[in-house]
Amino acid sequence: MPKHIAKSDLPQKPCLHCRRPFTWRKKWERVWDEVKYCSERCRREAKQTPRG
Q1: Cα–Cα distance for residue pair 28/32, rounded to 1 Å
Q2: Rg from Cα positions in the chain
Q3: 1: pLDDT confidence band, cut at 50, 70 and 90?
Q4: In this predicted model, what pLDDT tens digit does every residue of 25-52 receive, in sequence order?
Q5: What residues pair up with 23 in beta bridges, in sequence order?
Q6: pLDDT tens for residues 2-11?
Q7: Contact 36, 16 (CB under 8 A)
Q8: Rounded CA gap, 19 and 32, in Å?
Q9: Residues 6 or more apart from 22 whose CB is under 8 A from it?
Q10: Can you give 1-52 as a three-state secondary structure string?
């Protein structure tokens, strides 16, 4: 099995706030199913003004 995985092969999902796709990161390895936002900024803004 290769040690490196191409970035294009990493899982993606859309941000719940800005709707842009974001890619898996190593720091999210254990909590990937719980990650909802692409950034701290989107997380903060979603709390202030929830989209319907």
Answers
A1: 5
A2: 13
A3: low
A4: 999 999 999 999 999 999 999 998 756 5
A5: 12
A6: 678 888 889 9
A7: yes
A8: 17
A9: 12, 13, 14, 15, 38
A10: CCCCCCHHHCCEEECCCCCCEEECCHHHCCCHHHCCCCCHHHHHHHHHCCCC
- Amino acid code (one letter) for 38: C
Q: Looking at this protein, which amino acid is placed at residue 41?
A: R
One-letter amino acid at 5 equals I
The residue behind tokens 């993606």 is 12
Tokens of 45: 């803004």
Q: What global pTM score does this model have?
A: 0.75
- Length of the chain as a residue count: 52
Tokens representing residue 43 in the block: 């997380």
